[in-house]
Structures are given as structure tokens and as C-alpha cells.
Amino acid sequence: MRYRRIVVLLLLIVASLTGHTFGQLTQAPQVKDAALGNTRNVHACGKLFLAGQPMRDDIVAIKDNGVQRVITLRTNGEVDWDEAAAIKDAGLEFVEVPFGSPDSLTDNVFDKVRKLLNDSDKTSTLLHCGSANRVGAVWLTHRVLDQRVPLETAVKEAKTIGLRTAAFESKALDYIKRRRQAEPASEQSVRPGINDNFLKADLDVAQWLGRFEVESREVFGARNDVVKACGVRSGSRVADIGAGTGFFTRLFAEAAGADGWVFAVDISARFLEHIRRQAEDDRVTNVTGVLCSQRSIALPPNSIDLAFVCDTYHHFEYPQSTLASIHRALRQSGTLVVIDFERLPGNSREFIMSHVRAGKRVFRGEIELAGFEFVEEIAMERFRENYFLRFRKKAR
Fold it and tell me: Nearest-CA neighbor of 294 among 219, 191, 206?
């Protein structure tokens, strides 16, 4: 934990000095050396184990390490014992996605393995072949396309895991390229420059504290009621998107408790450094700052229960891309809460009319098109200019 904080802090310092954002600064699990009995070349990445061929005697260690599913990439005849029967006898799930030569590493193989690995946060999994060479190839595509790890980083990791055959690597890179090209074209900015003030390297946090954390601001005055309405409980994993000075982050951290976690997501390195210092001063240990980009919240798939967007949706310069990243990050049936300004011609203040690009009906429509089901609008006693909408992630 201490090491991760140091790494995040260093990146934030660089960002504040250069004015650059780090869109790929995600909380994707790290690759670590691991052991499963005498199994060769074992690495762990979250709940996923990547390895060479286990032996029959290793099954006890595999099960003791919490593995519930074993995926083999080996073909018939490569193993001289009945691995499938032994794994099933131990009460574990056994899945075969066999391929041998580079020619047999097809798109169908990549697709199948990616689908299985996208469930590995819920089902602890061992993915293996003979030496982890094939494992490195298929895992590379999952790491880049599903966990949004930079390609160069993922290739280095794959080689550490065991990827050594150039033809396998070439197949994986070609698959990644084609899948990326098949994704919808990047949308155009809906409000160029809307976030320029927050991207300044010399952003004055104290100035924004005076604007954000004052009782006259509706969402600050109603902050405790808002957190209660969000339904955060012990163990919840929350993303405070557009965290700003972090007052909601702190309240969510308290509500989620020691078993939960809060990701303070923002495009401003200086805001995140303020949140880090505040958490350290208050001895809050369940908060991580995430420096996102204008197009993505930079969180891994299936990593959060609640995405909270307060007075920030109108700052989404690329709402389709950002909503897609929120959809990926939410767990099944996860919740998206959006609080924003009522924009009513002839009624709303001039600041709102000029600053907020559209009203509630338009924003709700955009969110529903992005794969979310509208659940309810909650009336908040203290709200006069804001509204509170709750959505649920729909399976795609």
C-alpha cells in the first residue's frame, strides 16, 4: 500500500510540473511473483494466476490459494495425466481453450479467453499452458483491451510472465490493433475548453476550497443527505468522479468503512494531491487518487459499486467516451448517481444558462443511450438549483 501511494504521488508531482495528464493511471492490478506448489513460472495479477503446467500434487496448493477455476491452453496429448478429472475431483471448474502453433491462435481463442478473464475478479482463476508462453500472448490482449493498460507496459509484463515466441506476440498485437480499429470513432468535444481552469499546473486549491466547500453551495450544504441517499454502506467501492477538493470523497470513505474503498477521480493533479494530503492528515486509509483523462475515468472493469458524478457531468467534454468508461468500471447492476444543475430558460441563473450546455432531459437521454437504466429522481430537501438522478448499469 505504501509503495502504491509513493508511485501515485510521484506521478501527480510530475503532472503538476508539466501540465500533462496521465489518462492511463489506472488501478489495474499489478503483476507479482507468486507460488502454487511446484508449478513453474507463477505470477499473480489480482485474483488471476498465470503459470506454466501444474502437476497433480500442486492441486492442493492451487485450491488452498483460493483458485476456483483452472483454464488450460494446452492441447490433447500434451499432458501425460488426466488433468481435467483431477481438477474436477478437487471441486474446481476446468475449462479448455486449446491452441498450439501460432496459426491456431485465432481471434476466437482470444475472444474466449478475454471473456473468461473478465470474470476473474469474481472467480479466482488459474490460466496456464506448458511454460506460460501462450499464457503471455492471450493475457496481453486482455490487459490492453479490457484493463486499459498501456501497450508498451503490457508487452513488458507479458514477457516477464513467459511470452517468448515472436509469432505469438505478433498475433496478439495484430488482434489488439484490429479490435481497436473496430471500436466506434472517437466523438468530438461537446464543449472545448470547459476544463481548462482545472488543467493549469498552478491551480490554486485554496481558491477552489472557498468556492466548493461553503454552506451556501447547495451540494455542500446537503452533503450528508446526498451521501445517505447514495446508499453507500460498509464494504462499498465508490468512484467520486470529478472529486475536486474531496469533501464527498471523505464522506464516502467514512461510510464505506475499512472494508470499502473510494477512488477520488479527477483531471487535476493538484486537486488529487490536496486530497492525498488531507487523507494523510486525517489518517484515512481507504482512499486512492486517480488522475483520469478527458475521455476516461481510468478505472479497471468491474471495480466499483457506485459511480458518483456531482456538478461534473456538464464538464464531460467527451460524454460518450467517459460514460463508456464508467459503464465498464461498474460491477453488474452497479449504480450511477448524477447531480447537476437544472437548466430552465427564463428561470435558471445566467451562470447556469451559459455554463451548463444542456438540461436534465438531454443529459438523461445521453446516459440511457450509454447503457444505463433510469431508476429514479430523488427530491432533496435543500436542492433549489440541482437535481439528483439514479441510474443502474444494464448488461450489454
Answer: 191
Condensed to tens digits (0 to 9), the pLDDT of residues 183-215 reads: 655 578 888 899 999 998 899 999 999 999 999
- Ranges in the chain annotated CATH 3.90.190.10: 31-182
194 alpha-carbon distance from chain centroid: 24
Task: Give CA–CA dist 277/298, Å, rounded.
Answer: 21
What is the rounded average pLDDT of the residues 347-368? 95
The 8-class DSSP code of residue 314 comes to G
Domain 31-182: which CATH number of 3.40.190.10, 3.40.50.300, 1.10.10.60, 3.90.190.10 = 3.90.190.10
Q: In this predicted structure, what is the pLDDT of residue 185?
A: 55
Percentage of residues in the chain having pLDDT higher than 90? 81
Neighbour-count burial of 113, counting CB atoms closer than 10 A to its CB (0-12 exposed, 13-18 middle, 19+ buried): buried
Question: Of the given ranges (12-16, 147-151, 382-386), which has the lowest mean pLDDT?
Answer: 12-16
The CATH superfamily of 189-393 is: Vaccinia Virus protein VP39 (3.40.50.150)
CB 15 within 8 A of CB 269: yes
pTM: 0.60
What string of DSSP letters covers 35-59? --TT-SS-EEETTEEEESPPPGGGH
